[in-house]
């Protein structure tokens, strides 16, 4: 597609359940990022993938959060045993490598944990 | 450590008047600076960036920003605001010496009245 695609757009889940969020980056972009946007908190970096290198997981808030990127393209962010504080909009972005390259964002997945 | 500050949660201007959205940053090395805009229920859209070169950067929709190294600022400006400019604006920085992801400010809501 022409842009970064995320699915689902909305996800409502019960506390304690696991959820998977998907990101399909722009074709040819080697760098992929996950961010979390909470109300009034701006954007918080979660994890970064660059090509075949080991991902930068320094932003993951707990070991309940994990992500993978298969074949250097699609990425899945998994949250295990969801908590109410996990409720947020999860944004994915991709770019040509990193540095000063522009990151292009998807529309996000709004996660609500009841 | 890298950081970005947007000191105003909200900026209100009348249509046709000039607007400024403030941003200051802190990095160890040289900054890569970005402005993004977010409309309701949408992802972030890139407006402009500063990597090197001229301190005045021109971007999309008539916006521009001035890089001021001595004041560590990168304020977003537009000579004549439109009602359609009303949105949430984010400043972001990446340190060319450290880190892989963008560090975002908490955002400034711009409201343009007719």
Low-confidence stretches of chain A: none
Q: Helical region count of chain A?
A: 0
Task: Summarize the helix and strand pattern of chain B as letters.
Answer: EEEEEEEEEEEE
Mean pLDDT of chain A: 92
Largest sheet of chain A: 6 strands, mixed
Number of E-state strands of chain B = 12
The main sheet of chain B comes to:
6 strands, mixed
> SSE order of chain A in H/E notation?
EEEEEEEEEE
Q: How many beta-strand segments of chain A?
A: 10
Please report which band the strand proportion of chain B falls in: under 5%, 5-15%, 15-25%, 25-35%, 35-45% or over 45%: over 45%
Radius of gyration of chain B from CA coordinates: 14 Å
Helix content of chain B: under 10%
**Gross geometry of chain B:** globular
Q: What oligomeric state best describes the polypeptide chains here?
A: heterodimer
Uncertain stretches of chain B: none
The average pLDDT of chain B is 93
Task: Give me the Rg of chain A, rounded.
Answer: 13 Å
Structural class of chain B: mainly beta
Structural class of chain A: mainly beta
- Beta percentage of chain A is over 45%
User: Any idea what the shape of chain A is?
Assistant: globular
């Amino acid at each position: 597609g022409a842009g970064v695609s995320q699915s689902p757009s909305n996800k409502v889940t019960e506390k304690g359940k696991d959820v998977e969020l998907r990101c399909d980056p722009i074709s040819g972009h080697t760098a992929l990022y996950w961010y979390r946007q909470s109300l009034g908190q701006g954007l918080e970096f979660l994890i970064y993938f660059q090509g075949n290198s080991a991902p930068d997981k320094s932003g993951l808030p707990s070991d309940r959060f994990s992500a993978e990127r298969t074949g250097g393209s699609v990425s899945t962010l998994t949250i295990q045993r969801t908590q109410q504080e996990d409720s947020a909009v999860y944004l994915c972005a991709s770019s040509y490598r990193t540095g000063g390259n522009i990151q292009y964002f998807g529309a996000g997945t709004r996660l609500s944990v009841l | 450590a890298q950081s970005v500050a947007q000191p105003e949660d909200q900026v209100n201007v009348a249509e046709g008047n000039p607007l400024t959205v403030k941003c200051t940053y802190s990095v160890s090395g040289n900054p890569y600076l970005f402005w993004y805009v977010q409309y309701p229920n949408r992802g972030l859209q890139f407006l402009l960036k500063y990597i090197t070169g001229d301190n005045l950067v021109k971007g999309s929709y008539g916006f521009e920003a001035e890089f001021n190294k001595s004041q560590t600022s990168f304020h977003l400006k537009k000579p004549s605001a439109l009602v359609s400019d009303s949105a949430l604006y984010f400043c972001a920085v990446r340190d060319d010496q450290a880190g892989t992801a963008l560090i975002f400010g908490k955002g400034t809501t711009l409201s343009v009245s007719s």
